[in-house]
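Intended use. Records like the one below are meant for learning the mapping from a protein sequence to its folded structure. Do not use them to infer anything beyond what is encoded.
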Amino acid sequence: MDKKDTKKTLEVMDDKPDPGPLSESSELFSFGVIADIQYADLEDGYNFQGSRRRYYRHSLLHLQCAIEHWNKESSPPCCVLQLGDIIDGYNAQYKASEKSLELVLNTFQTLKVPVHHTWGNHEFYNFSRDYLTNSKLNTRFLEDQIARHPETMPSESYYAYHFVPFPKFRFILLDAYDMSVLGVDQSSPKFQQCLKILREHNPNTELNSPQGLSEPQFVQFNGGFSQEQLNWLNEVLTFSDRNQEKVVIIAKQSSAASAHQHHGEVSERPLRAASARRRVTDVTKTTTLSKEELQVPAFPHSVASLTNEVNRCLE
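Structure written out for the chain above:
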């Protein structure tokens, strides 16, 4: 876990040009966000590019500190969003994947509110998709089921669902590795399809390398959305449009269609993303949430003002 990713708490506010200081009367609800725990029983190391220090063993203390903070809040968050990479890929190398996952999940059990888990590349370095589907990292049981709208029910072929933490707010959790060579049998049609897409856009021998690519998101550690999942997302957004709901998109990666490089590092962007026909708030691992960015319309007819409060446990 990078120190900057320790913890975020987001308060959802009434529509105001300048919300000013938080007050109990203006706060509708809050939710916690944590990403890249990447626990491993190892000494500190660095990321793939060697540009960021990783606190593998110490990350568990960051998680414990975040949970302690959320549990002590006078107005507890309605839930916590865990945005993927809960344990590091090194665990697979040391055959410690299940032990490390159990340790982190046991820590999450001390949290007094529900946690919604997303899946990232490090989940798939450690486990197959079938394993994750049958594990405690599958929190689809927390989904909202809309009566008389079967089109808003996700397929079992990808890990995605939606839920309502507060009236007129719908959170949609997406499977950013629906289309990926990670976590699937290499003999499967989906693996072959994803490998074909990668090789069409990435001529490098090392498919994890973005060197020379005009579209650096086409790397092996990345993933994307299938057309089936995008069609489902469109149905849910259509329902929210008609019912004037504000929407928050949750994913391991940003759902923005464009790829970019930031400070010389490749941002993890989906191979395929939905067109931005509607405006939604995007809460992802790779998004830096500023006050200005969060004060955007969720839909043309309804403005959601979100104020970002980043509380660091350990400096």
